[in-house]
Amino acid sequence: MTTRDPDPPTLLRAERLRFDRYVLDLDRGCLLLDGNEIALRPKTFAVLHYLIENVGRLVSKDELFAAVWPNLVVTDDALVQSIGELRRALGDDGSRLIRTIPRRGYRFESDVSVVASIGQSSADAAAVSAASQDGDPSPEPVVNAHHPLTFFTKTPTGWRIGLFASLILAVVLVAGLLWSGVASDWKFLNVLGYGDRSTTKGPIIGAKPAIAFLPLVNQGDDSDREYFADGLTQDIINALGRFSALTVMSWNAVFPYKDKPASPEAIGRDLAVTYLVEGSVRQTGDRVRVSAQLVDTRQGRVLWSGRFDEALADVFALQDKITIQIVSALAIRVAQIEQRRVFAKPTDNLEAYDYVLRARPAFQHPTRANNVEARVLLRRAIKLDPNYAAAYAALAETYHIGVSMGWAESPTAALSRAEELATKALSLDHSEVRARVILARVHILHQRYKQAEAEIERAMAINPNDAQSLAGRGNILVWLGQTDAAIEALEQAQRIDPDLNAIDRFALGLAYYLKRRYDAAIEQAELNLRETAGVNSSRIVLAAAYAQQNRTEDAARVVTEIRRSDPTFDPQEFGTKFLNAVDLERLHDGLRKAGLYPAAASVSRPKQ
């Protein structure tokens, strides 16, 4: 293994590190393959650099979090996404170069050498070359090449702002054309708005402005009303998401920043957004007061600020005012039909709205108990307002979750109830996105894939930023046998909403398994089970993936857990929704190797 030169100043000048077929250019901040740049987000680049600095050594997840996300509380999703992005960027080399050490961390496995950079003297280059050929008895890898985050942690604020302004000047010019209407006919080339990536070759013409609405800070005296501040934030995010000219980060993406100090620049880099909104809410008696400001994350400049004081009874009008002022501040041209979608009033009954807000947390990480509790709250909301479409849609979701998690005593009856409630919601409000997504998921379970696709397309036409719709599309494509497209849709959903729900994370893990990306499948399954222990379907994928990697002890341990948690599990039924017989056989092959599927059993044909 290549080790560092004993002369530290030489490596401090080294700006390019070669491994396998790739070059990590630290000066330009990009990854190169045969001279061509491979786009990586800044945090993903930092993860790769840190792994290379510690080549051959086990790097724990906690160590990576401390190095790449210092002073921030983030979930495992952030790291899993970065590792997944790296493996995709490295293609077939990804799993070989970046090894997952189960429940411990990662190890980078490759020879690493320093490549002479422009401006480096011939003598220095020769010395580095000699060091890389002769080796050094020191066991440490190359660690003195400057870290890509060092500049941002050690350089004065003014310099940091100047650097960011320089990097995205061209993007600003293009965005100005877009906002003024000159670019209104350009096709959007990047729906996620990662326009500030340092690794892109140039500005992305027509990229949508990307925005994050941070959780509103509850400044009221009653801490029990925290859910109200969160619910108000979620509703404004949903309203902004319906403007097709914006890319809006989901609630799960911004939640890690709740009550956590971080600069707009840091949040902009972490979430790959150009704008963010931050603010506070105070409820006093029958009045609601909200203060908010829109910030350009590249320069930390406030573009707009507003203070609102409304009667609690006018809380929906308050949401509308905030939404339209943000959009106006961005000077986005908004079609009238999108305005009508945003400003539809969900209910006249504030108590019913309050019950819906109280039920929402149960959908993030469902358990049998909180799913039942959410159902009680939503029925109360419907009793207060029998025409509240969102309450019917959420209640439908509780029944779908019950079936998907294996909690329903009669899955057929529960699915029928979910379909009935979702249809009722749409009869009250045809633009209720969640109802369309749930209806599509019910169609999937009944293998009515054309109907499912139609509902998802309708949902995405209403809210193109809805992660559940994107993930729903990915679910459909998995069962249709379009695995590459399924992974693309699910990963896109994961970028908008890092905290995918248990059903969608299972689908992503299954898709990875079908593509023989077993490390990625294992990561998704293990993460899913840490977040939601009851998702037995991920245990099944985990057992199959372990078996394919000949990790017999791990596979046997998971098989024992499957049989304990679900004694009625039928391996010959699992996966029969596949329309592609090859996919079904690939799954059964892993289950056979794990000891879950009878070796002599014939291959079941997918139901038509």
Give the topology, please.
Blueprint: H1 8-13, E1 16-19, E2 22-25, E3 30-33, E4 36-38, H2 42-53, E5 58-60, H3 61-68, H4 76-90, H5 94-97, E6 98-101, E7 105-108, E8 112-115, H6 122-134, H7 150-154, H8 157-167, H9 169-180, E9 210-213, E10 217-218, H10 226-241, E11 247-248, H11 251-254, H12 264-271, E12 275-284, E13 287-296, E14 301-311, H13 315-329, H14 336-342, H15 350-359, H16 368-384, H17 389-404, H18 411-428, H19 433-445, H20 449-462, H21 467-480, H22 483-496, H23 502-514, H24 518-531, H25 536-548, H26 552-565, H27 581-594
Q: Could you explain the architecture of this structure?
A:
The protein has 608 residues and is an alpha+beta fold. It contains 27 helices and 14 strands. The strands form 3 sheets. Strands 9, 10, 11, 12, 13 and 14 form a 6-stranded mixed sheet that branches. Strands 4-3-2-1-8 form a 5-stranded antiparallel sheet. A 3-stranded antiparallel sheet has the order 5-7-6. Helix 25 (536-548) packs antiparallel against helix 26. The longest helix is centred in the last third of the chain and has 18 residues, at 411-428. The chain is globular, with a radius of gyration of 26 Å. The chain starts with 7 loop residues before the first helix and ends in a 14-residue tail after the last helix.
